[in-house]
């Protein structure tokens, strides 16, 4: 299984939002992240990059 860690970029300040993310659902400026154990977090922003070799997703915060 491919799991990602999600990093939020707020004007150059990087914050780890969630690890072991298995699902991302985008609805406008809202991104719902679901972890391997079913935990969920909503983040406001837009996806800038998904890098499977690093296992990371970078979200530009609003």
Description:
The N and C termini lie far apart (about 30 Å). This protein has strands at about 5-10, 15-25, 30-35, 40-50, 55-60. By secondary structure, the chain is mostly beta strands. It has a 5-stranded mixed barrel with strand order 1-2-3-4-5.
Proportion of β residues? over 45%
Widest β-sheet, arrangement of strands? 1-2-3-4-5
**What series of H and E elements makes up the topology?**
EEEEE
Supply the helix-strand structural class: mainly beta
In DSSP terms (H or I, runs of 4 or more residues), the helix count works out at 0
Using DSSP, what is the number of strands?
5
Distance between the termini: 30 Å
Provide the domain count: 1
Offer a few descriptive terms.
single chain, 62 residues, mainly beta, 5-stranded mixed β-barrel
Per-chain topology:
Elements: E1 4-10, E2 13-27, E3 30-35, E4 40-51, E5 56-61
Short description:
By secondary structure, the protein is mainly β.
């Amino acid at each position: 299984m491919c799991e990602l860690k999600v990093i939020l970029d707020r004007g150059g300040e990087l914050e780890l939002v969630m690890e072991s993310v298995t699902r991302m659902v985008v609805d406008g400026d809202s991104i719902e992240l679901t972890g391997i154990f079913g935990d969920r977090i909503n983040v406001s922003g837009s996806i800038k990059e998904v890098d499977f070799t690093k296992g990371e997703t970078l979200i530009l915060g609003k």
